[in-house]
Design brief:
Elements: H1 2-80, E1 82-84, H2 87-92, E2 96-99, E3 102-117, E4 122-125, E5 131-136, E6 143-144, E7 149-154, H3 156-178, H4 185-204, H5 209-216, E8 225-229, E9 234-239, E10 246-247, E11 254-257, E12 261-268, H6 270-273, E13 281-286, E14 289-302, E15 309-316, E16 327-344, E17 349-350, E18 356-361, E19 367-372, E20 374-379, E21 382-386, E22 393-397, H7 399-408
Antiparallel strand pairs: 1-19, 2-22, 3-12, 3-16, 4-11, 5-7, 5-10, 6-9, 7-8, 9-11, 12-15, 13-14, 13-16, 14-15, 16-21, 17-18, 18-19, 20-21
């Protein structure tokens, strides 16, 4: 019994000791695992921290490079918009730089216009009696001078008038030869009147002084033929007949016009015409051409269809660029004056994208940049501009050379 109790006690003690040892081992293992996990976690954090530092360092380096690149790009952009000219270049190109100032300038208006023949220098050739065309001496487009033969006509009425003139001329010469002491006063006066009347009839029918002299000198017969001659120098612009055609009195055979000066009829509204006076300067614009002109007349009635008033402008046509029927734009100076910045027309240029620019001097002498402006109007070779400050120094002469130098460097001469 005692042995049995002792055996049970020993067995229980051994079991308890074994459980205790296992528990300690388990705890030790858990602690070891915990330490290992903590160590791995710390190592992972260290790795992530190192990666973050590397990423941040790489990002900072990239940003720094971007900033350097951006800064270099800005510096390059600043340089690309500018051209540098040496004093020798400026002298050779005769470049002049002036400060822009506000000045009192004439304001102007633009209006559509149509080229017309100068009515005071246009002559219509037409017979005063019924005739037949027998020959032509000039054709369409010919330049003719005063007294030059244009066409030969024939008429029964003219033949009768020529015969009467010959008879009247003979009688008048006889009476004058006899004198007042031999013939009565009545016969003397009658002979004189009949001669003058016959002479006037022939001339009124269209016979020239030269033709009449030839008839009276018996160098030709009273066959009814006569010539129409040019009454003014000019160009034949109208020619509507054929030889042998029978023409009624008043028919327009030819039109001769002196095109050295032309008229432009511009249409403006009634409120605008009050600002225009006869003698005001004007400019006729068509295509790339600009021709100086003058206002010569203001109409005093409105067109029923357009409700506009006509302004007549006289324009020189030295190069024969203008022809009747052409549509043009007219810029007319008004009586109003205003403060504006004015510069030579040649100093305002077109940029590559079609905008108007001027060449502005920078801080250094000989350094220029193209600056965009708004072209308001051009009159007598001077341009009115806006969009730039007064006092700005710009190239007033030689701007095209400066623009060319910008283009040579491959620069964008349009400044935004």
């Amino acid at each position: 019994m005692l042995r049995t109790l002792l055996f049970i006690f020993l067995t229980f003690s051994l079991a308890a000791c074994s459980d205790h040892n296992n528990e300690d081992v388990h705890k030790t293992s858990e602690k070891h695992e915990s330490l290992k996990s903590h160590s791995e976690h710390e190592d992972h954090k260290d790795i992530e921290h190192h990666d973050d530092i590397q990423k941040k360092s790489h990002t900072d380096h990239t940003d720094h490079k971007d900033e350097e690149h951006h800064s270099a790009s800005e510096d390059k952009h600043d340089e690309e918009g500018v051209v540098h000219l040496t004093p020798e270049q400026m002298k050779a190109a005769n470049i002049i730089v002036r400060s822009l100032e506000f000045k009192n300038v004439e304001m102007s208006i633009r209006a559509p216009g149509e080229i017309q023949l100068n009515g005071y220098k246009t002559f219509k050739v037409s017979p005063r009696i019924n005739v037949q065309v027998t020959s032509r001496h000039a054709k369409l487009g010919d330049e003719v001078k005063i007294g030059e033969a244009l066409v030969t006509l024939s008429s029964v009425e003219m033949a009768e008038a020529q015969g009467q003139l010959l008879l009247a001329d003979k009688e008048w010469k006889r009476v004058k030869k006899l004198g007042r002491k031999v013939v009565s006063a009545k016969r003397y006066i009658k002979a004189k009147v009949e001669y003058e009347k016959a002479f006037a009839n022939v001339k009124a029918y269209g016979m020239s002084d030269k033709g009449i002299s030839s008839l009276l000198d018996q160098k030709r017969t009273a066959d009814g033929s006569f010539q129409l001659v040019a009454r003014q120098t000019g160009r034949i612009l109208h020619d509507q007949f054929v030889i042998g055609e029978y023409i009624n009195a008043g028919y327009e055979l030819m039109v001769i016009a002196d095109e050295s000066t032309m008229w432009v009829e511009a249409r403006v509204t009634p409120d605008v015409v009050s600002q225009i006076n006869s003698g005001n300067n004007a400019e006729v614009i068509f295509g790339k051409h600009r021709i100086s002109a003058k206002v010569t007349q203001l109409h005093h009635s409105l067109d029923e269809a357009t409700r506009t008033t006509a302004v007549r402008i006289e324009v020189p046509n030295k190069k024969d660029l203008l022809h009747a029927g052409m549509f043009v734009t007219v810029q007319i100076s008004t009586s109003n004056k205003a403060k504006a910045m004015q510069i030579a027309e040649a100093a305002v240029l077109r940029s590559s994208d079609g905008d108007w620019v001027v060449m502005v001097e920078q801080e250094e002498t000989g350094e220029f940049r193209a600056v965009e402006v708004e072209l308001i109007q051009v009159n007598d070779g001077m341009a009115i501009i806006e969009g730039i400050k007064a006092g700005t120094r710009v190239v007033s002469q030689g701007a095209f050379f400066v623009q060319s130098e910008l283009a040579k460097g491959g620069f964008d001469i349009h400044n935004h």
